[in-house]
């Protein structure tokens, strides 16, 4: 495995772990009410999405081993789009992790 692919996978794992830690035990309504939490989670989704996108371009054979990576890439792009926050929140609510 190329060094760059390892770096992207490390970034993906670290961002996913942060998202899980930040949102653990929280309900979606709590997420909506906490501006700092929303900002932190959206930042981690951005990092995860960028690393996944670069991994897909740099090492598509490695990215293909990640279940649903193409679907995730689309959802992450939706989250980081400049569209209304309601679009981003709807995409986030569909993601696993919220009670």
Summarize the structure.
The protein has one domain.
Provide the fold topology:
Layout: H1 3-23, H2 28-33, H3 35-58, H4 60-63, H5 69-79, H6 85-93
Helix pairs in contact: 1-3, 3-5, 5-6
Describe the structure.
The chain is mainly alpha-helical and 99 residues long. The protein has one domain (3-93). The protein is built from six helices and no strands. The chain has helices at residues 3-23, 28-33, 35-58, 60-63, 69-79, 85-93. Helix 1 (3-23) packs antiparallel against helix 3 (35-58). It is elongated, with a radius of gyration of 14 Å. The model has no long low-confidence stretch (mean pLDDT 81).
Question: Descriptors for this entry?
Answer:
6 helices; 99 residues; mainly alpha; elongated
Helix-and-strand structural type: mainly alpha
Helix-strand pattern, N to C?
A: HHHHHH
Radius of gyration: 14 Å
- C-alpha geometry: elongated
Instruction: Classify the beta-strand content into a percent band.
Output: under 5%
How many separate domains make up the residues?
1
- Please work out how many helical segments DSSP would assign: 6
Low-confidence stretches: none
Major sheet = none
Mean of residue pLDDT values: 81
* Spatial gap, N to C terminus: 36 Å
